[in-house]
Amino acid sequence: MVRHLSPERVESMARSGQALVVDVREGSEYRTGHIPRSKHISLGQLLQRLREVPKDKTVVVVCRSGSRSSRAVEMLMEAGYRNVYNMSGGMQRWSGPTVS
Q1: CA–CA separation, 71 and 95 (whole Å)
Q2: What percentage of the chain carries pLDDT values higher than 70?
Q3: What percent of the chain is helix, strand and coil (3-state, nearest 5)?
Q4: How far is it, in rounded angstroms, from Cα 61 to Cα 46?
Q5: What class does CATH assign to 4-93?
Q6: What are 41-70's pLDDT values in tens digits?
Q7: Distance CA 59, CA 81 (A)
Q8: Annotation marks residue 63 as catalytic
Q9: Pairing state between β 39-40 and 4-5
Q10: Which of 21, 22, 46, 63 is catalytic?
């Protein structure tokens, strides 16, 4: 079962270093604006780049609306990740700072 966190909670966790944010959008989407210090790994590359996602840290996955990130959370859980969350509503609901 995919667990969700609000964008407000994600902002707080990312700012304090409590979580790694993984953005699974395509490169062009990521370049238009992303959460500061987020790691970009498009959904299609996720399984090949699992070594870049630490299992010992809280991971929050984000996309545009929450659909791709929900799939990514399922993929990570199947790969043995336990402390992984989907950001509800994706970047469409994000009101925190972004960088391009």
Answers
A1: 23
A2: 100
A3: 40, 20, 40
A4: 11
A5: alpha beta
A6: 999 999 999 999 999 999 999 999 999 999
A7: 9
A8: yes
A9: unpaired
A10: 63
